[in-house]
Design goal:
This protein has four helices and six strands. The protein is of the alpha+beta class and about 200 residues long.
Length: about 200
C-alpha cells in the first residue's frame, strides 16, 4: 500500500514537471510570435525630428551642440524628402561667387529581422559640426520604432552605419534620414537635408 502511494506521488510529480515544461514552451512561443513588437513613438502632424530623437536617444541628443538640436527641432517628420533617390544636395554660401556643396546619401538593405543602413554627408568645406540621424517608421502601426544619431566635429565627412534589429519578418518599414550642419565662419545656408527609403524585411 505504501509503495503504491509512493508510485502515485512519483507519477504526479512527473506529470507536474511535464505541465511546467509545456507551459514554459508555450510562453517561449508567445514571445516568438511577439518578436519585433515594441512600444514606440506615435507621431502627430506637428512632431519633429527632435521629438523622436529625444524619445529614443535622450542622452545622445542632449549632448548635441545647441545649434544642431535647434535644426532637428525645426524639421517636421512629415516633411521628409520621399522622392525615389539615394542622395540629395544643398549649398553653403559665402561672399565668394562659388558655393560649397553638401551631398547627403543613404543606402539600405533589408534582411530577415533587421535592416542595415549606411548614411553619409560630405561637405566641400570643413564644418564645425555635421550631424546625421536616422529613424525607422512602421507605417502599418503609425509608429516610429527606433532611431540612431551621430555627430563629427571639424570635418568634411560624417557617416553613420549600423542595423535596426529585432524587426518583424516580411514587414514593410520606412528608413528616414536627416542631416544638421553648423556652417564654418563666414558661411550661411540650410544644412538640413532629408532622405527616405521604403525597405521590407525578408
Amino acid at each position: 500500500m505504501k509503495k503504491t502511494f509512493m508510485r502515485i506521488i512519483a507519477i504526479g510529480m512527473i506529470l507536474l514537471n511535464l505541465n511546467i515544461c509545456a507551459s514554459a514552451t508555450d510562453i517561449q512561443k508567445a514571445d516568438a510570435n511577439n518578436f519585433g513588437e515594441v512600444e514606440g513613438f506615435t507621431p502627430t502632424s506637428e512632431s519633429t525630428w527632435g521629438d523622436v530623437l529625444r524619445y529614443f536617444n535622450p542622452e545622445e541628443f542632449d549632448h548635441l551642440p545647441e545649434e544642431l538640436q535647434q535644426q532637428y527641432d525645426a524639421i517636421l517628420l512629415e516633411d521628409v524628402n520621399d522622392e525615389s533617390t539615394s542622395s540629395t544636395t544643398a549649398t553653403l554660401r559665402s561672399g565668394i561667387v562659388v558655393s560649397d556643396l553638401l551631398t547627403f546619401a543613404m543606402g539600405t538593405t533589408g534582411n530577415r529581422t533587421s535592416i542595415d543602413y549606411s548614411i553619409s554627408l560630405y561637405s566641400t568645406v570643413q564644418c564645425p559640426y555635421i550631424g546625421i540621424s536616422v529613424v525607422l517608421y512602421d507605417a502599418e502601426a503609425n509608429t516610429y520604432v527606433a532611431s540612431d544619431l551621430g555627430v563629427d566635429t571639424n570635418t568634411q565627412l560624417c557617416t553613420l552605419e549600423d542595423s535596426f534589429t529585432g524587426l518583424i519578418r516580411q514587414h514593410k518599414y520606412r528608413v528616414q534620414a536627416a542631416s544638421a550642419v553648423t556652417p564654418p565662419a563666414g558661411y550661411w545656408g540650410d544644412g538640413v537635408l532629408t532622405l527616405e527609403d521604403e525597405v521590407s524585411t525578408k
